[in-house]
Amino acid sequence: MNWSVFEGLLSGVNKYSTAFGRIWLSLVFIFRLLVYVVAAERVWSDDHKDFDCNTRQPGCTNVCFDHFFPVSHIRLWALQLILVTCPSLLVIMHVAYREAKEQRLRKAGGDGCRRIYPNPGKKRGGLWWTYLLSLVFKAGVDMVFLYIFYRFYRNYTLPRVVKCELRPCPNVVDCFISRPTEKNIFTLFMVATTCVCIVLSLVEATYLVGKRCREC
């Protein structure tokens, strides 16, 4: 995937975000996206190749690896990053729709006609709801993926040795994971940054609701 194009699309969110939203976007790019692209992909590139079991039984290693690692961390993180940033693109699309509608009205009625959206990027009306729901959705996606990681990998950590007794393994065999300490460090780092992003999204949502209540 071309992450540079992805980053270019999301950079426009800064124009319509609050201070909390800008901090959230910076965290996603610097501490999640860049870490994923630069380091995490390489750390997990050998997860299946270097998964060794103390048996020569054909198929045993593949079955054990599939049982203990049903979904790769890398693929889960990629899906998480895509889903958590899609709501920000919806905000940009909503603003673009407002701007296009305003241009059509000016062409039809001239520059003297009444403007529906004096500032299309101002969070009022439908755009306010779009922005608020995007924050709730982003926090919800991160929470769901934290739960998925916890269910697949208890306590978000990988053991050094796993014992497997699935067929076609002849008996209980020991299987060894490649670089478990390094992978645990990256996993805990991504979990921590995800928790910070959840807190920022909820704080920003509270800020928007509180600001609207004060105005009303």
Question: TL;DR?
Answer:
The protein has 216 residues and is mostly helical. It has helices spanning 3-10, 19-43, 60-68, 73-109, 126-152, 180-215; strands at 52-53, 161-164, 173-176. Helix 2 packs antiparallel against helix 4, helix 2 (19-43) packs antiparallel against helix 6 (180-215) and helix 4 packs antiparallel against helix 5 (126-152).
What would you say this structure looks like, in words?
This protein has 216 residues and is mainly α. It has a single domain, classed as Gap junction channel protein cysteine-rich domain (de novo design (two linked rop proteins)). The chain is 66% helix and 5% strand. It contains 6 helices and 3 strands, in the order H-H-E-H-H-H-E-E-H. Strand 2 and strand 3 (173-176) form a beta hairpin. Helix 2 (19-43) runs antiparallel to helix 6 (180-215) and helix 4 (73-109) packs antiparallel against helix 5. The protein is elongated and about 80 Å long. The model has no long low-confidence stretch (mean pLDDT 80).
